[in-house]
Design goal:
Blueprint (H helix, E strand, L loop, with lengths): L17 H6 L8 H17 L5 H19 L12 H13 L12 H37 L4 E6 L2 E7 H26 L1 E2 L15 H8 L3 E2 L3 H6 L2 H27 L7 E2 L18 H24 L13 H22 L4 E2 L1 H8 L6 H10 L4 H18 L8 H7 L12 H7 L8 H15 L1
Parallel strand pairs: 3-4
Antiparallel strand pairs: 1-2, 5-6
Helix pairs in contact: 2-3, 2-7, 3-4, 5-6, 5-9, 5-11, 5-17, 6-9, 6-17, 9-10, 9-11, 10-11, 13-14
Length: 457
């Protein structure tokens, strides 16, 4: 492409070296919808303010709408000679309407144009993430209600700790994902500030109506400082953090699905539709969806680290380093939303072995705390009760049995406060005893699931 054909070509002689062309090529080819919408709003404002002739503004708007349809039909191929998506759109517009196309770039710079497109794209990705999170949270709520009374062992330090219900366990992830949803909503609020009208960095010497453009494009406010507006990518870092944090939460759930599907746990059977096999071992069914989600948490952490490293040494205002921002947020958004969608489809298809989970909930001396609480309710200080029950656990270990298999005389020898009803402590009674807001009692689990469902709408 000749120097004259470029948006900045007047200062330069000759063409660009092909290696320079390829190295500086934009990563924004999928952002045409946002750029065209921003350009239409900008052209409409230019015409209404008398900055360009109204007839030219009308021609530009009609031309851009036609270009948008061409993009939707796949009729505009990517041409590496045209630098970026903005130049592709301007070139297609010029082919359609001729000279008036040259007025579109009046009163704007690539810098504020790019900042606008980035904000519109990240805003849309926030909306997509919120919608995908809502669907996954609702799936978890449904499963939690279904399994509100199904016992399983709760763990600390990857050791059986106390009985809980499967519904209660799943709702823990619902709470994490609700916080993730709120982070995307909060990020969207800060994203939704319009930078167009900031020019390259100093503003524009035209009577712009920035509020008009902001209203048309759905922004809540306009930027207050033209330098910051063109140089700011905090919103990209925030978005990447929200993606990384969400993927980390999914990674934790993935780890549990992987463990639960193993022969050692055998709490869940993987559906064929969400598993893969082995190239050599015919018996294998691998939790590859969960494993890939766990692995992709590392990728999203990398996207966050990448944008932070890009920003850390940049002087004001715009620098070409910021072109890299799109690679980070587009990759992060794509990976996360795919993950949320596949988990929303996979979780309802998991086949839980409820009988095995119920059996495991009562093993490993998981009722020890309930026996200590039994003594506390009879007046013994908790620390003393803790020591008494610790001795009973030691005795059960020596006999190779569970606590509820110890004879009553062993209990009575440990403390005269023990009565025959201590042997009636079961997994179900332990669950029912935790009938407090946020507890694992079945009715509290159902209550929490309803509240969570109401919060996401």
């Amino acid at each position: 492409m000749s120097a004259e054909g470029r948006t900045w070509g007047g200062r330069f002689e000759g063409g660009m070296h092909e290696l320079t062309r390829d190295y500086t090529a934009g990563m924004d080819r999928d952002l045409w919808e946002f750029d065209i919408a921003g350009s239409i709003a900008h052209a409409r404002m230019l015409g209404r303010q008398g900055i360009i002739p109204a007839a030219d503004a009308d021609a530009i708007i009609a031309g851009l709408e036609a270009v948008r349809e061409k993009f939707r039909r796949g009729e505009i191929p990517w041409n590496p000679e045209l630098e970026d998506i903005h130049t592709h759109i301007e070139s297609a517009l010029r082919d359609l309407i001729g000279e008036p196309a040259g007025r579109l770039h009046t009163a704007r710079s690539r810098n504020d144009q790019v900042a606008l497109v980035n904000r519109m794209a990240v805003r849309a990705l926030c909306d997509d993430a919120v919608a995908a999170l809502r669907e996954l949270i609702l799936v978890i709520c449904e499963l939690a209600e279904r399994h509100a009374a199904d016992p399983m062992p709760g763990y600390t330090h990857v050791q059986r700790a106390q009985p809980i219900t499967l519904g209660h366990h799943l709702l823990a992830y619902g709470e994490m994902l609700l916080r993730d949803r709120d982070r995307f909503l909060d990020c969207r609020r800060r994203v939704n500030v319009m930078p167009l009208g900031s020019g390259a960095l100093a503003g524009a010497p035209y009577p712009l109506d920035r509020e008009m453009v902001a209203r048309e494009l759905g922004f809540d406010a306009i930027s207050r400082n033209s330098i910051d507006a063109t140089a700011d990518r905090d919103f990209v870092a925030e978005f990447c953090f929200a993606c990384a944090m969400t993927q980390v939460h999914i990674s934790r759930l993935s780890e549990e699905i992987i463990l639960w599907a193993s022969s050692e746990y055998a709490f869940v059977r993987l559906p064929d539709a969400f598993a893969t096999g082995s190239s050599i071992m015919p018996q294998k069914k691998n939790a590859d969806v969960a494993e890939l989600a766990r692995g992709r948490a590392g990728r999203l952490i990398g996207e966050l680290t990448g944008i932070l490293a890009t920003l850390k040494g940049l002087p004001l205002a715009y620098n070409r380093d910021l072109q890299e921002d799109k690679a980070y947020y587009l990759a992060a958004g794509r990976t996360l939303i795919q993950t949320l969608q596949v988990f929303a489809a996979m979780l309802p298809a998991l086949q839980f072995d409820l009988a095995r989970m119920r059996e495991a909930a009562g093993q490993g001396y998981a009722l020890a705390t309930d026996i200590a609480d039994y003594l506390v309710k009879k007046g013994m200080p908790f620390r003393q009760a803790h020591a008494v029950v610790g001795g009973l656990v030691r005795e059960a270990e020596s006999r190779g049995c569970e606590l509820n298999e110890l004879p009553l005389e062993v209990y009575r020898a440990a403390s005269p406060l023990f009565e025959p009803d201590v042997l009636a402590i079961t997994v179900e009674s332990a669950l029912d005893a935790r009938d407090v807001p946020g507890g694992t009692a079945p009715r509290r689990v159902r209550e929490a699931a309803r509240e969570l469902r109401a919060l996401v709408g």
